[in-house]
Amino acid sequence: MAGKVFIRSFGCQMNDYDTDKMLDLLREVEGMERAERPEDADLILFNTCSVREKPQEKVFHDLGRVRRLKENNPRLLIGVGGCVASQEGEAIVERAAYVDIVFGPQTLHRLPQLIRARRASGRPQVDVSFPEIEKFDQLPAPREASADGSAFVSIMEGCSKFCTFCIVPYTRGEEISRPLEDILAEVAAHTAHGVSEITLLGQNVNAWRGLGADGEELDLAFLIATLAASPAIERLRYTTSHPREMTPRLIELYAAEPKLASHLHLPLQSGSDRILTAMKRGYTALEFKSLVRKLRAARPDLSLSSDFIVGFPGETEGDFAKTMQLIDEIGFDASFSFIYSPRPGTPAADLPDDTPASVKTQRLMQLQQRIEAQAFAISQAMVGSRQRVRVEGRAKKNRSELAARTANNRVVNFSGDEQLIGKFVDVIITAALPHSLRGEAAAATS
């Protein structure tokens, strides 16, 4: 096909990973290069998210905006992938007849075939099947390092928890783990290109299971310890985890493995046992607190971020107060927090919900302000400390400075040479700002 492809990605880091793989695939198989603007593209793809309502509607809004491009260029192809595609399937083409290709998260590797079939037949192509792990067998290996020295590696797909509010098990399928040797091969390809920080991805990443040479079951703790043995890797992260899958071995690894970052994203969703039961989360507030206590015993400086759903059907002021109390007791570092939005086809969508929207908005603002205050207090406590950071690139506001990321996932801006981008360096934290840190290169202060 050749030409250029423009991809817009919505939602989680899994989608970002899939987007990178689409680009690698189309570059290798079709000879396509990335377009920075949809106006310059021969193929426009939307990699979608259906976890919340607004991103889903935004997809159809953006589709409407590129429709005029197709009217001016009949050769232009438009495709929709990701979770909205998996959920809606043929309905996308019925709603937007100018869409040429619809593919799910598990069939992105079939993009070249779908493109050719669309060209040959003149009919829209829809493939939202669930061929399990086939996708990873068909995708090309990494060809070059990212500019910032980091890489995402997907180690599993899907979710088998079936929380009552969540659409993911229906759009990405149940949990399927990639084989150990495939993961090791992808990581080795990244490190061969100079990558030194790896983030392992999965909807429930700590549910990963593999088989050893003697048939024994392996877990995420084994995988992380195996990867950490590589001298080329300086830091390891994983996301998103589920509280029910935080095994004793994984907790102990925070004490034993310094390459494992001092940051964990552990979704709580609510501090009320009644709401947690209605969500089908599989743990209580007390069990979550006990888990955090064990984690911080293993790694006292561990920073915790979390997910919260505010205004779940039936949430009372008392339920919300319990969430706020748990936030105060634990001390979260950051959050992804949203007002509940019903997803069609999920059990929670049928629950009665009589809480006014204004009340939900007020609760969300209260929760976010509390966590922002906690995060700023943690940042202030870091002032004067020495931090090992990975330099990601130029600072957003002051392009003469560098932006780096600490082990506990904070951005720190400091003066330094551009040659440091993609490398690990030591900095001294000199100031805490609301959403970032200031620092100085450690060599300059010593």
Number of strands: 21
Helix content: 25-40%
Helix and strand content put the structural class at alpha/beta
- Please state the overall shape, judged from the principal axes of the Cα atoms: globular
Beta-strand content: 15-25%
What is the makeup of the main sheet?
6 strands, parallel
**Mean pLDDT across residues:** 92
Give the strand order of the largest sheet, numbering strands 1, 2, ... along the chain: 2-1-3-4-5-6
Q: Terminal Cα separation, in Å? A: 56 Å
Low-confidence stretches: none
Number of helices: 15
Q: What's the alpha carbon Rg, rounded to whole Å? A: 23 Å
What are the key terms here?
6-stranded parallel β-sheet, 5-stranded mixed beta barrel, globular
Any overview of this molecule?
With 446 residues, this protein is an alpha/beta fold. The protein contains 15 helices and 21 strands. The chain has a 6-stranded parallel sheet, with helices on both faces. A 5-stranded mixed β-barrel has the order 17-18-19-21-20. The chain has a 3-stranded parallel sheet with strand order 7-10-13, with helices on both faces. Helix 10 runs parallel beside helix 12 (285-298). The model has no long low-confidence stretch (mean pLDDT 92).
In short:
With 446 residues, this protein is of the alpha/beta class. It contains 15 helices and 21 strands. The chain has helices spanning 13-30, 53-72, 82-88, 90-95, 111-121, 134-138, 168-172, 180-192, 220-228, 248-256, 273-279, 285-298, 317-330, 357-382, 442-445, and strands spanning 4-9, 33-34, 43-48, 77-81, 101-103, 125-127, 150-154, 156-157, 176-177, 197-201, 209-211, 217-219, 235-239, 263-265, 303-310, 334-339, 386-394, 402-405, 411-414, 424-433, 436-441.
